[in-house]
Design a protein that fits this description.
Elements: E1 3-9, H1 13-26, E2 32-38, H2 45-50, E3 55-59, H3 66-75, E4 81-85, E5 89-90, H4 95-103, E6 109-116, H5 132-142, E7 150-153, E8 160-164, H6 165-171, H7 184-194, E9 198-209, H8 219-237, H9 241-245, H10 249-252, E10 264-267, H11 274-282, E11 287-292, E12 305-309, E13 324-329, H12 336-346, E14 350-361, H13 367-374, H14 380-384, E15 387-388, E16 391-397, H15 398-404, H16 418-427, H17 432-441, H18 446-459, H19 463-476, H20 481-493, H21 497-504, H22 512-527, E17 540-546, H23 550-561, E18 570-576, H24 583-591, E19 597-601, H25 608-614, E20 623-626, E21 631-633, H26 637-647, E22 653-657, E23 665-668, H27 671-677, H28 680-683, E24 689-692, H29 693-698, H30 711-722, E25 726-730, E26 734-736, H31 746-763, H32 769-793, H33 805-813, H34 819-830
Parallel strand pairs: 1-2, 1-4, 2-3, 6-9, 10-11, 10-13, 11-12, 13-14, 17-18, 17-20, 18-19, 22-25
Antiparallel strand pairs: 4-8, 5-9, 6-8, 7-9, 14-16, 15-16, 20-24, 21-26, 22-24, 23-25
Helix pairs in contact: 16-18, 17-18, 17-19, 18-19, 18-20, 19-20, 20-21, 21-22, 23-24, 31-32, 31-33, 32-34, 33-34
């Protein structure tokens, strides 16, 4: 694998010499090329460069600037990777090896960068050396590859940035509107993450940086250029760059939890999620959420974060009460009055021991007064310890907020005057809804007070007013448990059972009380003859075959039950294939909380493929949704799946093409259509398959291809043969653990076994010759070559027996006209000769 090191020079010959010498000394020969672009130096740099014989040299007759010069170097390069490197650096021991290891640790990493002694954007570390010898010793000790020190970022500083060439081919070169320089690295970074790739800071790799020797010579012009280019990138993004890439490490340092703990964090006006990403880097099991006004700020497509669009003052956010361990409100730009309103609005979403981290400008008037209001034990010394970014930072405990903020500057003491409010409504019920909304908005316990008013009205028999009271709460807080339960109890007393069930089914929470209320309403409805017993039959059975992945299974079940609502229309069927770990303990912890779990443990391990076929036999639902124990449903996805299935129950199966996400639906009425729309390596993905149970049960020979590794494709095509109506939906339902099972022969499975399977359906006159030939070619040209690249990037060629690929290509494709071209391409990938 070849890395092209692109270096721009403009005078500063001494620095250039030191940089080149350090590359030669600390980088393995044969694994790099140096491409120098000189921007018309006048200090002897050009003459020295012309004497070097180990580099590609481009000599510009005028100063083309940094972006244009880099692009010239990239276009003249021949490497698999592009490394943009300033000439005022000294590279060190293991520098490139460490970064290459990180870059190719995952196919979704697009670029990486090191830390240094002099660099912005939190890439700088404290050093202890004072000369070059000490630098070498420091770097040798520091540069030990350690994946636990890798950190996802929104931006990498361009003084040293290693990028996969194929990523540059996709996102484009540096934007030359930023000539002569500054913000081109911000722009490139954001284009990379917008394309779905990750940027990673290698905290295990250090190089020395002398620091901006060219720009520092004329400070005033440098500042003017910075301001001009900042405006350019702001215009290009449609939102200020500082809002997009901002990281508040002073804020995230106030989060102190066990590294393995699962907890929830919400950031108000989160920008590009840099701060949330920093939290996720430190706490991999936390769940991160954000609100943001500017949708254009959300450039990062690789971060698993739940974002709601809207301004925090006027938008209703549908979070569960007591959902968050931390809520962050930093750089909100509001005054004291607005800040109190915001804290009052969002504190209800904190857990009882949760914390609200907020900032207030140091120049704000009456700071001490506001702090006295917000803190029970406020003292000046405490706040002095939290001064940062010219702001006061303070951490508000939920219990302190409950004790204090509810009484701040209240114009009306609603909670002390509930009976007076009820009497006023009785005497004059004009504009009732507006009055109720006013109570909610201008009381810091608006939902609690309205719930109290509703209960009191019900006790007094004021039935006409009761339902609007609870509906007002639900208008602003759709998941308010108390309002829902109050409302459904009242509706059930008036025998409005179906309406009561609709309200309770809107809750996104599941607990014993809600289940008990729902069961009681169902029983009342059946006794009244309103509902039939069939309402208990699940629409969907999520069927999970599992083996020895207890931790993955726990995350999988959490992803299901936090959104499955309180319905009995979805059940979860788990078949444990005699796991030796604590899988059963994990399942029972969920089964003790939820009624809609069916659990079976096999006496012996019957094999993964057989267990996949075995688990649906225990399903009670109309549709069987096969699901991997290390695949996790994205929040909200199950509601969409449920609604789609409910409206399309006449399909024999539904296949979710999760590599695409345009939500399009493609109907298929034959095996030909399905094979043409979904290639074999995709249709083998178990978690994409939902089959109608009655059709699955009728298949007589479900194990016909059980030893092929592709038996689930056989089942799908057999169902479609008998019941020719199905659909394919482009919908990214999951995020993945990336537990790619190894130890099998990929070429044998996806060439020999798959072509044999297709041949079977062709011989049965179910698959046409034309589609067979089309899919045969596609499997080779797309699937085989794509996966070959993936395995090569991840150093897993041997694990998947990819050395046998040429054998199977010879065996099945020798007589095809595209054989030679495909064979040569595969051979070149294996020999590392293409980008």
């Amino acid at each position: 694998m070849l890395t092209s090191i692109i270096i721009l020079t403009y005078n500063n010959l001494d620095y250039t010499k030191k940089c080149i010498e350090s590359i030669r000394k600390n980088t393995k020969k044969g694994e790099y090329e140096i491409v120098i672009v000189d921007n018309c130096s006048s200090d002897g740099t050009r003459e020295w460069l012309e004497k070097q014989n180990d580099m590609v040299l481009i000599l510009n007759e005028e100063n083309m600037g940094f972006p244009k010069g880099c692009n010239q170097g990239i276009e003249a390069s021949s490497g698999d990777n592009i490394l943009l490197l300033n000439n005022d650096v000294i590279v060190t021991h293991n520098w490139l090896d460490n970064m290459i290891k990180c870059l190719y640790s995952s196919k979704d990493i697009g670029a990486v960068g090191p830390v240094s002694n002099s660099v912005s954007y939190y890439q700088q570390i404290t050093t202890s050396y004072s000369n070059l010898k000490e630098l070498e010793e420091f770097a040798k000790e520091y540069n030990v590859s350690d994946s636990s020190k890798w950190e996802n970022r929104l931006k990498l500083v361009g003084f040293c940035m290693l990028i996969k060439k194929k990523v540059l081919d996709k996102v484009g070169l540096l934007d030359e509107i930023f000539t002569p320089g500054n913000f081109e690295d911000d722009d490139l970074s954001l284009r990379i993450v917008s394309a779905g790739y990750k940027l990673v800071l290698c905290n295990d790799t250090f190089i020395h940086h002398y620091g901006s020797k060219s720009f520092n010579k004329n400070r005033d012009k440098y500042i003017e250029l910075m301001m001009k280019n900042e405006k350019k990138i702001n215009d290009k993004l449609g939102v200020p760059i500082v809002h997009v890439i901002n990281i508040r490490k002073d804020i995230t340092s106030l989060i102190d939890e066990d590294k393995e703990k699962e907890f929830n964090v919400l950031q108000l006006e989160c920008g590009g999620c840099g701060t949330l990403m920093d939290i996720k880097n430190r706490y991999s099991n936390c769940r991160i959420f954000g609100t943001e006004v500017h949708e254009k700020a959300l450039v990062n497509r690789s971060l698993d974060v739940n974002i709601d669009i809207g301004d925090i003052e006027n938008t209703c956010f549908n979070y569960e009460l007591g959902m968050f361990d931390y809520i962050i409100g930093a750089d909100l730009g509001y005054g004291i009055r607005e800040l109190i309103d915001i804290v009052g609005k969002f504190k209800r979403y904190l857990k009882q021991n949760g914390k609200f981290i907020v900032t207030l400008g140091k120049n704000t008037e009456n700071v001490k007064n506001i702090l006295n209001m917000l803190f029970v034990d406020f003292n000046r010394e405490k706040i002095n310890g939290y001064v940062s970014h010219n702001q006061y930072i303070f951490v508000l405990q939920r219990k302190e907020l409950d004790e204090n903020i509810d009484s701040i500057e209240s114009n009306i003491e609603i909670d002390k005057n509930i009976q007076k409010i009820i009497n006023d409504i009785k005497s004059d019920d004009k504009e009732l809804n507006s009055r109720l909304e006013y109570i909610y908005k201008y009381s810091y316990k608006g939902a609690d007070i309205l719930n109290s008013i509703g209960v009191k009205m019900f006790e007094e028999g004021l039935i006409d007013f009761v339902i609007p009271v609870f509906q007002t709460v639900l208008k602003f807080e759709p998941a308010n448990k108390d309002a829902v339960l109050n409302l459904v109890v009242i509706l059930s007393k008036f025998k409005q059972y179906e309406l009561a069930l609709k309200y309770i089914d809107k809750l996104y929470i599941t607990d014993d009380e809600i289940y008990a209320v729902r069961k009681d309403i169902l029983e009342q409805a059946r006794n009244a003859g309103v509902l039939q017993q069939k309402s208990d039959i699940p629409l969907i059975s999520i069927c999970i075959p599992t083996y020895n992945r207890a931790d993955n299974l726990k995350k999988c079940l959490n992803s299901i039950f936090r959104q499955i609502k309180t319905w009995m229309n979805i059940e979860v069927v788990i078949v444990n294939n005699d796991s030796p770990d604590n899988t059963e303990e994990v399942v029972m912890s969920f089964k003790n909380k939820y009624d809609n779990i069916v659990y079976i443990k096999n006496e012996t391990n019957i094999g993964g493929d057989k267990n996949i076929l075995y688990v649906p036999t225990y399903a009670n639902g109309q549709f069987v949704f096969l699901h991997g124990d290390d695949d996790y449903f994205m929040d909200g996805s199950l509601v969409n799946v449920y609604n789609f299935v409910k409206d399309n129950t006449d399909n024999s199966f539904i296949f979710f093409q999760v590599t695409k996400n345009d939500k399009s639906v493609k109907n298929v009425t034959s095996v030909d259509e399905f094979v043409a729309k979904v290639t074999g390596t995709s249709s083998a993905f178990m978690s994409s398959i939902m089959m109608k149970k009655c059709f699955y049960d009728k298949l007589k020979d479900k194990e016909k291809f059980i030893d092929s590794g592709l038996n689930q494709i056989y089942v799908l095509l057999s169902i479609l043969e008998c019941y020719p109506k199905a659909c394919v939906i482009n919908y990214s339902l999951f995020y993945y653990e990336n537990n790619l099972s190894g130890g099998y022969n990929w070429p044998k499975v996806f060439i020999e076994n798959y072509l044999n399977l297709l041949q079977y359906f062709k011989d049965e006159n179910v698959l046409s010759e034309r589609i067979y030939n089309f899919e045969k070619e596609r499997v080779l040209k797309q699937s085989a070559i794509d996966w070959l690249g993936v395995f090569k990037e991840n150093n897993r060629m041997k694990e998947f027996h990819m050395d046998t690929l040429k054998h199977y290509v010879d065996k099945y494709y020798k007589n095809e006209e595209y054989y030679k071209e495909s064979y040569e391409l595969i051979d070149s990938i294996m020999r590392d000769k293409i980008n």
